[in-house]
Amino acid sequence: MNPPVSQSSIHAPIEEYQGLSPRVNGSLLPLFIGLYVTLPCRIAAKDAGLMTVIASDGSEVKVHMLAANREPSTKFVEVMGKVCNDDGVPEIVAIRVTDMTNDLDLLVVDRVIKHIHSPRFKNTIFNVDGQRIPWYKKF
Questions:
Q1: What is the structure's pLDDT at 128?
Q2: Stretch (H or E) spanning 52
Q3: Tell me, what's the pLDDT at 122?
Q4: Pick from 33, 42, 30, 62: nearest CA to 110
Q5: Predicted TM-score of the model (pTM)
Q6: What is the pLDDT of residues 28-51, one digit of tens each?
Q7: What are the entry keywords (predicted)?
């Protein structure tokens, strides 16, 4: 008998998800293990179900495309998926990839992400912890 698979494993089943998925950069991924996020990024390499992307903060992130809705057709994309951590390095199992453009200033994107996650805004406007804490328990 095989041992149970952790919900934060890239081998765990990916369920349909329609809830909150805050935009993040690579350095924020460890805070969202087992949760869904949206990662704006530049595609660095694609290879048989695996994409290597550069997040807005310059971090390199592995994206598993097996559950993704389609292959990207632009250089810059947003990857929505579940953050997993099999070997101590956060990776994303994509469920949706959205084409953005072939020309994007990731430094500006990163500044916006940092504002979203700043203590001043993260739960008053953007509900960053919405997957962990239901909105009605915050008051």
A1: 80
A2: strand 50-55
A3: 84
A4: 42
A5: 0.84
A6: 999 999 999 999 999 999 998 899
A7: Nucleus
pLDDT of residue 70: 81
Neighbouring CB atoms inside 10 A of 23's CB total 19
Question: Of 103, 128, 110, whose CA–CA distance to 20 is shortest?
Answer: 128
Which tokens go with 19? 């809830």
Query: DSSP for 64-126?
Result: E-TT-SS---SSEEEEEEEEE-SSSS-EEEEEEEEEEES---HHHHHHHHHHHTSTTTTTTTS
Contact between residue 98 and residue 111 where contact means Cβ atoms under 8 Å apart? no
**Mean pLDDT in order along the chain per 10 residues (139 residues):** 53 66 95 94 93 97 86 94 90 93 96 93 79 58
Range 26-131: architecture per CATH: Beta Barrel (2.40)
Please tell me the chain's helix, strand, coil percentages from 3-state DSSP, rounded to the nearest 5. 15, 30, 55
Contact 33, 93 (CB under 8 A): no
